[in-house]
Amino acid sequence: MAVESGADRAAFFSSDDFGVSVTYTKAGGSAVAVAALWDSPTLEINDGESLSALVTEARFTCVASALPDGSGEGDAVAYGGQSYEVRAIMPDGLGMALVQLERDA
After folding, report:
1. How far apart (Å, rounded) are the C-alpha atoms in residues 47 and 24?
2. Which helix (H) or strand (E) holds 44?
3. In this predicted structure, what is the pLDDT of residue 3?
4. Which pLDDT belongs to residue 60?
5. In the chain, which stretches have pLDDT less than 50?
6. I need a surface site. Which of 20, 39, 86, 97 has the fewest CB within 10 A?
7. What's the sign of the alpha-carbon dihedral 80, 81, 82, 83?
8. How far is C-alpha 19 from the chain's CA centre?
9. CA 103 → CA 27, 57, 77, 94, distances in Å?
């Protein structure tokens, strides 16, 4: 018996709560709307000595099956008036995926 159903997972992404819609375009494909939880934390990168930098990393979590088949690095995402390129898709093995992005110049 599954701990949660697809409907249970979908409830996390409701735009009535915390969810947003991102536009996902597979390289050479058409755009689809994907319900997501958007996150863009600021991270400190430090070499342990004197070099330190702050970077903002755009990413979102979604139901893995909401992504088009064959999704991967190089695909495009639009959200909040910004364009991003997919750097990595990391499925968690439980039906969810974290999509790491890089902002287009």
Report:
1. 34
2. strand 42-46
3. 66
4. 96
5. 1
6. 39
7. positive
8. 12
9. 16, 9, 9, 28
